[in-house]
Automatic annotation (TrEMBL):
PANTHER family: D-ALANYL-D-ALANINE CARBOXYPEPTIDASE, PEPTIDOGLYCAN L-ALANYL-D-GLUTAMATE ENDOPEPTIDASE CWLK
One Pfam entry name: Peptidase_M15_4
UniProt feature coiled coil, ranges: none
Protein name (record): Peptidase M15C domain-containing protein
GO molecular function: peptidase activity
Residue stretches making up the Peptidase M15C domain: 86-145
């Protein structure tokens, strides 16, 4: 039995989370629909990711990773990301990951073949940038819409203005300003003083050049085993 479109849409919407930008969400679901019309069954596997979730991912396979004074190191697993908290567009609800599913919808297919690249092309036609186009450290499941903003701008509270291309080019483009509230973003000078002290020490000893905000993972002290 062929997997139903509604099943893929429901799974995708759930996996993107409530913190996803509305234009990103709309465009991602439209990508799933258009791919389905071409006989390609695709599902969104991830969307919004909190700073704490990002810290856990970054800490995997690393030593001395500090986040809010806690150690999330897990050396039993391979490293899965080079992005620290605040350095991934997932943290701002502006990125998604996808994969192909089998015809019955029961198995994930991770082969980057013609179908995979066709989904990326559909995504790009809807305004996404594809990680498979990166010059280095290619991330084939990754798609994002940044509105031209950097991580620093997003962390400072600048909201992206994204243009929805779901309805094609005939209707006038609709600009939607993000109404997503990033709950992990701290108020100015509200961070933990102990963490700030650690951050200042790391800056002075290792020239880490990190923000002293008392909240986010700031530095990696790695030991050779």
């Amino acid at each position: 039995m062929t997997v139903k479109l509604k099943t893929l849409l429901d799974r995708s919407e759930k996996n993107m989370g409530s913190g996803i930008h509305p234009v990103v969400k709309e465009s991602a679901l439209e990508m799933v629909k258009r791919a389905y019309q071409e006989g390609i069954f695709v599902q969104i596997s991830a969307g919004y990711r909190s700073m704490e979730e990002q810290a856990k991912l970054y800490g995997q396979g690393r030593l001395g990773y500090i986040y809010d004074g806690k150690n999330y190191s897990d050396l039993s697993k391979p490293r899965v990301t080079n992005a620290m908290p605040g350095q991934s567009y997932h943290n701002y609800g502006l990125a998604i990951d996808y994969f192909i599913v089998s015809d019955d919808g029961k198995n994930a297919v991770w082969t980057v073949d013609a179908k995979w690249k066709r989904v990326a092309a559909i995504g790009k036609s809807l305004g996404f940038a594809w990680g498979g186009d990166w010059s280095s450290l290619k991330d084939y499941p990754h798609l994002d819409m940044t509105g031209g903003l950097t991580y620093s701008q997003l962390k400072a509270g600048t909201k992206p203005r994204l243009i929805s291309k779901v309805n094609g080019t005939t209707p006038p483009a609709t600009q939607v300003e993000s109404d997503v509230i990033i709950k992990d973003t701290p108020a100015k000078d509200s961070g933990n003083q102990t963490i700030k002290s650690i951050q200042r020490t790391l800056n002075s000893r290792y020239n880490a050049k990190i923000d002293v905000d008392g909240y986010y993972i700031m530095f990696l002290i790695q030991k050779k085993l």
